[in-house]
Amino acid sequence: MAQKNSSPWVDYVIFGLTVFLVFCLIFESFIDLPSLVAWLGRWHPLILHFPIVLLLMAAVIGLFNQMVPKLLLMVATLSALVTAITGFFLGTESVPKGDLLFWHQWMGAGVAILAVVWYWVSTNHLQQTYLVKGIQVVLIILVGLTGHYGGMVTHGEDFLALPRSKKLEKIPENPLIYEHIVYRVLDNNCIACHNPNKIKGELLMTSIGELIKGGESGPALVVGDPGNSELIRRLHLPMEDEEHMPPEGKKPLSENEIQILERWIALGASDTLKLSHLDNDEPLVGMVRKMMEPGTINSWAKLPKVSDSTLQNLASDYVTIKRIASNSQALSVSVYLPPEYDPKNITDLNRISNNIVELDLSGIPIGEKEMDLVATCKNLEWLEVDRTPITDAEFAKITGLENLRVLKAYETGISDESVAILKDFKGLKSLYVWDTQMSDQGLSELREAMPNLHLDYGIDPELKMEFIEKDTIVDSIQ
Amino acid sequence: MEEDKTNSENPLKVNRRHFFSQLSVGIGSLALGSLLIPDLFKGGPAPLASQPLGIPHFAPKAKRVIYLFQSGAPSQLESFDYKPTLAKRMGEDLPESIRNGQRLTGMTAGQDKFPLMPSAAKFAQHGKSGAWVSEFFPHIAKISDEICIVRSMHTEAINHDPAITFFQTGSQQSGRPSMGSWMSYGLGSENQNLPSFVVLTSRGKGNSQGLYSKLWSSGFLDSKHQGVLLRSGKDPVLYLNDPDGISRSDKRHLLDHVSSLNKIHHVETGDDEIESRIAQYEMAYRMQMSVPDVMDIKKEPESIIKLYGEDSQVPGTYAANCLQARRLAENGVRFIQLYHQGWDQHGNLPNEMAGQAKDVDQASAALILDLKQRGMLEDTLVIWGGEFGRTNYCQGNFDPKNYGRDHHPRAFSIWMAGGGIKPGITYGETDEFGYNIVKNPVHINDFHATIMNNLGLDHEQLIYKYQGRRFRLTDVAGNVVNDILT
């Protein structure tokens, strides 16, 4: 099928781009892109949609034994090449390349080169041969895979995974140790390979019975004897060991999770045991409680986005605003006393109040206005208002900060009136309230209401006396 | 890519590699020549960090470090590593199977005998954790449930300077950035009005080794990360105060003009140090206000002064520095490095070490208690330790009342507290002679990796490229010691 009107320079461009692409791929590790060229890579996510649509269209038309319009194929091939090259540019930004990117890059290059081959073959009058049919089929598959890998690069590997609501289910207050704790650990780590569909090593881990029955290597679980349970043995093997579970490349279990499994087996691997059945000094209680704590990191994932420029605008020589970690929307704010203090420095933070998880106002002469701002920081986990003139009146503003973990309010004017508010901070772990107006009665009321709270009322007086009284270094030697 | 931008802005800032690599994409055919000289296009422009700077890589457990460095190497055998066997076998020669070819310093290499010497200080177990602490450190013993004693530190260096340089910079040879500089580089400043890396020094009566400013140098990192030595007395920072007759606004005008001149110079030469200098002038200007306030311990109540010991009223003592360290930490200094000199007990160990311990014991323990009551132990990592250990055999005359110990790199003890470290544990173990580690060794690289981990930094990701090579604090080694983390 000759097409007389095709202009030769398009062929040259395609040839040139192909050579350039191949060159790029071969000399990848030696190439250092100027910033403008690297910037071109940023267009990859836009351009890539063209070859996907055009190539699929062309290939499907071909497979239905229809004539593939030359123009379509030409544009498809060109766009595939440009996409592959911009993709290559974009890829150089992330070093080292992960597996996903690696496969995406080579399959993407494959698509482009295959398209060129098809284009070349078809301009050489070989439109309807098995070779071309083959190319079309492979192209469709490759485009799909490349697109899928690319999607995983941008959206994360489990973007397309089916929703699994079970994982997000909250553990009930008084969980069944097997159903709510142990099974969750197994489900998150093991059952993906040891389920009725996969049965790796002929082991099913979906029920206690199956665990006792075991697989190729014998029973996975020996009731009451974690030491002889294959499951536990494999968890403890060094990572390099072939038999270590989960296998290489999979996330290993946390120390706490392993201990939970061990302890549960040692206690008889019961499926009816509840947390409330256990004594408080039973180690399993602590481990399970640890697992029940809401992950702080998870709660940060839901924070609204805040831009770097906003942070720069609000920060000053005396207000430091930092992200808790790179790519995190959680903010840590520290305020230092400027020569001339103006509450506006702090009240201006209301633009980002939802993102503030740590706020340090130690030693700042704050009042009601500033505490109003604090009250709007709903995600606050760490608050320092020590060495400030606040009293119960100001403190009353910040009721209901349920994520608050650490509160420093020493050397302030708060008194027993604030106990009610403190009791309301359900998540509070540490509280520093020495040198306040709080009475022993208020403190013991607080201790009673929050038995797990670390309540710091200054250095133990006895210990303090030992330090203050006299230097007790041994004289015998001198 | 930011680097490229600055490079293209200033034509002088192009190096050979960069010149060629710029060319490589522009002229494809030339690049083919790289087949002949593969190295031609290797490597990008200067500094390199695969993570953004100034922010932790992941959520940190500690925000700042107070490093109580005991310069001269306190003996582990008279402090935290209790070895009753040495008393039982007192005077016996160290078995060759234990020494196992360890090289010695020039000071004891000439000795024909290496008689085992027990500790002159008595040991007892303290706290719920039952940690062994000697009677030289009665106050630290009282806070043993707050600290994590690591008895299995080891190093390669056998002399003070390489050993302390190793601890501070991750290399025995000088020239690399100090730990505090790396932290400043990686985490940025918490308070714009104070340097992020501050150094305080003090000196005991014991045999001392020199301290050099290279220990807190920023090496090849930008000099704004350099440690700032705060002196005791009227002028904590030299030349910080304005001369008589110069008002603060005059100073402001002066700085503005100097800065505009410097900027012109920077455009001409492209020297980054000029920008650092501008930043340092500005920092000094702000420090004029902040430093006197932070350093003024008169605001501390008497009970706090007494907690740290009476010494804490005397500027320049270790106790005063500990109190100062707390105030600096409160004010957002990232890395506070103390040095206390005088721990090099080659002779007269029992006496000298008792004196040294008296200098530091109460104040170190008080610092922990004080940080704890302020909730600062939750995000401040405190480290106490020297550059290596001391031998289990006697140096010089064999006299249980007055003996010496030589340098020993194979095993020594330090302690850490707060900032994501498990309290109330003792980690690692040495053999019955206290000579070799038998369990859980911790190398200096591991120590660095662990500290960085607690500060939210991946020690393998905080990288600086200099002279064609990528540098890390942990160089090419280091494992985070997970066992001692909370």
From TrEMBL, chain A:
Give the top-rank taxon of the lineage listed in the UniProt record for this protein.
Bacteria
Q: Which Gene3D superfamilies match?
A: Ribonuclease Inhibitor
Give the Cytochrome C Planctomycete-type domain ranges. Answer: 190-249
| Keyword set includes Membrane | yes
Q: Which InterPro entries match?
A: Cyt_c_Planctomycete-type, LRR_dom_sf
Keywords, A to Z? Membrane, Transmembrane, Transmembrane helix
Question: Which parts pass through the membrane?
Answer: 12-31, 43-64, 71-90, 102-121, 130-150
Q: Does the keyword Plastid apply?
A: no
PANTHER family per record:
CYCLOINULO-OLIGOSACCHARIDE FRUCTANOTRANSFERASE-RELATED, F-BOX DOMAIN-CONTAINING PROTEIN
Which protein are we looking at? Putative membrane protein
Automatic annotation (TrEMBL), chain B:
* Superkingdom of the organism of origin: Bacteria
Q: Which InterPro entries match?
A: Alkaline_phosphatase_core_sf (IPR017850), DUF1501 (IPR010869), TAT_signal (IPR006311)
What protein is this chain from?
Uncharacterized protein DUF1501
